Amino acid sequence: MTAIEATGLRYAYPDGTLAVDGVDVTIDAGERVALLGPNGAGKSTLLQLLGGLVEPDAGTVRYFGETTDADSVRERLSVLTQDPAEYLFNPTVREDLAYGPAQQDLPRAEVERRVARLADRLDLDGLLSKPPFRLSGGEQRRAALASALTVEPDALLLDEPVSNVDAANRAEILSLLDELSAEGGPASEASGGSSERRSDGVTLVTSTPETELVPHVADRVILLDSAGEVAARGPTREILTDVDLLTDCDLRPPQVVRLFEGREDVPLTVAEARARLDG
Questions:
Q1: pTM to 2 decimals?
Q2: Domains of the chain by start residue, with CATH
Q3: 93-103 helix and 137-149 helix, angle to the nearest 10 degrees
Q4: Positive or negative, the Cα torsion across 175, 177, 178, 184?
Q5: Which residue, among 266, 139, 270, has the nearest Cα to 212 in the 3D structure?
Q6: Given strand 2-12, what is the order of strands in its sheet?
Q7: What are the pLDDT digits (tens) for 164-173?
Q8: Matching PROSITE patterns, A to Z (predicted)?
Q9: What band does 277 get if pLDDT is binned at 50, 70 and 90?
Q10: pLDDT digits over 115-144, tens only?
């Protein structure tokens, strides 16, 4: 099943600058896709177009093969922008995490279960009673991600999800995203027949300028150049090991790729490199 299908997307900023021009994107259910490009390439705008937060000047986006109305599938579609404040608007972090599932009319016990589970996974237990505006930038980002996940979406769109996050919490976030993609998340009976919908895992679309992050969040890459045009599409390994292509797009190839450039079966991560050397 197709999760998100965009055709002929075009969008210009109010000053007339063209951000997205004639872009087609198809993302299958359960896929992990990265929108990779340098700063200013229009990645965030494209992500917001795909998530239905911004109306295109031309083109359409269809969700789950059913509708072009993003609001009608908002329970199944979560979009986390670069500004955590867009997800954090209640008096406390606990209320922010509970807000989404409460709108789904879930039993209170189920809402509390989801809040407790995600607070534990994202190290938010000691922050639940705090006002969101009193959190640090990294804490706000973790709280916003938890809030996006409490609705247990089928598709999750993330804009630079680990920026301003320390190393330990970055690792936990990446582990959680990997779990969601692989298993479809810990869906429950209270969420209404989730086993059928979630069988492909959660669809993940991540926007980032960070090539080092891509192997951890995506199996396929849509590469944008500095002009905001699609320069290439393909498997993560194919794109990230093409040093010339990345350089032409004003991106720095992953350090481990540069170290092993020219060898067969170039690793994409430190863990892969260690396995090659140990083997």
A1: 0.89
A2: 2-76+155-236 (3.40.50.300), 82-152 (no CATH)
A3: 20
A4: positive
A5: 270
A6: 18-28, 2-12, 58-63
A7: 788 888 888 8
A8: ABC_TRANSPORTER_1 (PS00211), ABC_TRANSPORTER_2 (PS50893)
A9: confident
A10: 999 999 999 999 999 999 999 988 999 999
